[in-house]
């Protein structure tokens, strides 16, 4: 199974275009969007090329392939533009290996506030805009970072699950973090 992860697009058309091109090149079966899809949020500057209606139009072309969760900047008004569900606070992805991915944005559940999980489960979230792929206690924490507003001196990035390897890669093809699950 191959999954592509993106988080915190914040309505940026350029970022969305880059994400979708990378998703196409990756050959992944699903595009997993970790929230903050259309709105830039009150704490962020308006991104260059901010165009939520066009971002929605581009993403809707992939509606059958998208698994999405709600971020803290997403609202019911945003959902009206999108043809795939994105208002759930979390989703479970079950891998053929038996490993479970708990997919969420990160503002409600994260490394510091975990739902009931078993040893070896993976918490996949965005929100912090900081890439990570590492064991923390009993679970793996995985964050693909952000393409629109990367933080912590990191490059814009996305995540990929390819077989049993989770990796965060920059758009310059630098692997920023990687872990085997």
From TrEMBL:
Source species, domain of life: Bacteria
Name all Calcineurin-like phosphoesterase domain ranges: 1-162
Q: Which CDD domains match?
A: MPP_YfcE
Listed EC numbers: 3.1.4.-
Task: Check the record and name the InterPro entries matching this protein.
Answer: Calcineurin-like_PHP_lpxH, Metallo-depent_PP-like, MPP_YfcE, PdiEstase_YfcE_CS, Phosphodiesterase_MJ0936/Vps29
Keywords attached to this entry: Hydrolase, Metal-binding
Gene3D superfamilies, from UniProt? Answer: 3.60.21.10
Q: Which SUPFAM superfamilies match?
A: Metallo-dependent phosphatases (SSF56300)
| Cofactor names | a divalent metal cation
Single GO molecular function: metal ion binding
Q: Which family does it belong to?
A: Belongs to the metallophosphoesterase superfamily. YfcE family.
Which PANTHER family does this entry report, sorted A to Z? VACUOLAR SORTING PROTEIN VPS29
Q: Which NCBIfam families match?
A: PRK09453.1, yfcE
UniProt protein name: Phosphoesterase
Q: What organism is recorded for this protein? A: Vibrio gelatinilyticus
Its ancestry begins with:
Bacteria, Pseudomonadati, Pseudomonadota, Gammaproteobacteria, Vibrionales
């Amino acid at each position: 199974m191959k999954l592509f992860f993106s988080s915190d697009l914040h309505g940026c058309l350029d970022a969305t275009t880059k994400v979708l091109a990378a998703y196409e090149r990756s050959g992944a079966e699903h595009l997993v969007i970790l929230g903050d899809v259309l709105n830039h949020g009150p704490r962020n500057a308006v991104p260059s090329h901010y165009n939520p209606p066009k971002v929605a139009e581009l993403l809707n072309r992939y509606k059958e392939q998208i698994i999405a969760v709600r971020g803290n900047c997403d609202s019911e008004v945003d959902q009206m533009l999108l043809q795939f569900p994105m208002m759930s606070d979390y989703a479970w992805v079950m891998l053929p290996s038996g490993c479970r991915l708990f997919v969420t944005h990160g503002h409600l559940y994260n490394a510091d506030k975990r739902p009931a999980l078993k040893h070896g489960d993976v918490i996949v979230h965005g929100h912090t805009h900081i890439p990570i792929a590492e064991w923390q206690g009993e679970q793996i924490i995985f964050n693909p970072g952000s393409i629109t507003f990367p933080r912590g001196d990191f490059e814009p990035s996305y995540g990929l699950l390819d077989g049993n390897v989770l990796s965060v890669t920059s758009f310059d093809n630098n692997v920023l973090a990687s872990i085997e699950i």
